[in-house]
Structures are given as structure tokens and as C-alpha cells.
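Sharing in case it's useful to others searching the archive later.

Someone asked me privately for the predicted structure of Beta-ketoacyl-ACP reductase, so I'm posting the question and my answer publicly. Question first, with the sequence:
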Amino acid sequence: MDFNTEVALVTGAGRGIGLAVAEKLGNLGAAVVLADQDLTGAEAGALAIEGAGGRATALAMDVRRAEDWQEVVAEAVRRYGPLSVLVNNAGFDRPGGVAKLDRCDFEAVLEVHLTSCLLGMQTVLPVFAQAGQGAIVNVSSVYAKIGGQGEAAYSAAKAGMVGLTKSAAREMARQGVRVNCVLPGLTNTPAIRAMMSEKIKAKLLAETPLRRMAQPGEIANVIAFLASSEASFVTGAAWEVSGGWNM
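And my answer, the predicted C-alpha cells:
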């Protein structure tokens, strides 16, 4: 996979899967813009990529704001040239079951995961269409297919991302733009380590045939493939990277 002529924007790139994706694309030669509200983490990631001989910039961004999308994409183009890869990875969680989930919490999770995904695609499409090519990878979750107990908002948002991905793939294909999504299973990220109890973690691992969590780099490998010319005939796909969780 050769990304030497590519310019990539990765959201939620300050840690976890987003950081692993940024590092992977940077190591493959892409100029990478690491966007995150956590500018400290994104800056550390950019410095690591540059230290390894790559090109990277960290920018503060609230993915819920259309204005931020416009500013970050414009800055990416100004620094490196036309954007060619977008990875919609930003997200967070407010757990709760259907019966008692607060509406504000539900809408907040949808806004960060799903609405931001739409805003991102709407912002980059003119750039991609002008070039006649581009690749978008949206980071969903295996919960999009199986649901998560006590994760009503997160599951709904991630399922919405799959539908949005498929609609965008149909609409953007004639402009040379491919749109895919990945559905990770349980992944060893800072958020999981900080928030998930050992009891819940053990239950989920017992349901995973490979009997372990994914490392962020394993998810990043699949995202990089989908963003690359090696996946030139892949669009509208929802790739599970879950260790067989939903098999």
C-alpha cells in the first residue's frame, strides 16, 4: 500500500483507534492531519509521525460543528494539497438502556458519531469530486449489527453509520469516491481500559472466538487497506474486525 501522494484527515486521532490509523497512514507515506478536541494527544501523535520521517499536523476540532469541518479541511488543503482520504473515527459514549436512556444523552451520542459523519462527507465531497477520486472510511462497531445491552445510543449511532455509509457509497460512486466502514469488536483502547469493568470485559471476551481484544493497530490495518488503491473495487462495504464476535 502506497500513500505517498495521499493527504488524509483522521478525526478522533488523539488516542486509540484514531491515533493508530494516523500513525499507520503516516508510516505508509500519507500526509496526515490529526483532528481531535484533545489537541495534546493529537500533537503527540503528529510529532511521533514526523519523528519517523513522515508528514503530520495536529488541529483542534469539534466534529459537531460544520464550521470546524470547513476550517480543518481548508487547512489540510493549504498545507498539503487536495485531501484524498477521510477517516471518520471520532466518538464517545453515554451508556444506558432503552427504557431509561435520557433523550439528551441519546442525541449527544448520535451527534458525535452520526451527524459528524454526515458533516465530514459533505465537506470533503467537493474536494474529492473535483479530483475524481477519494476514499472515506467510517468507523462503526459490531454493535451496529448485534446491539449492545445498556448501549442503546451507541448501538443506534453505529448502525446509522452503516446505513449512511451505504447511501453515500451509492451516491458518490460516479464521482470516483469510495465509501466503506469498519465494525470493530472489543478493542484495547484507553476508553475501554478506563470505563469497562473487568466483569463486562470477561463476558465480551467469552463471546469472542479469538478470546482476546483487538489492538488498535489491527483495526488500523483494515482501515488503511480500505482507504488504499488495493481496495479500488470495494465500496459500500461494512467490514467486521471483531475476532469473530458476530460470526
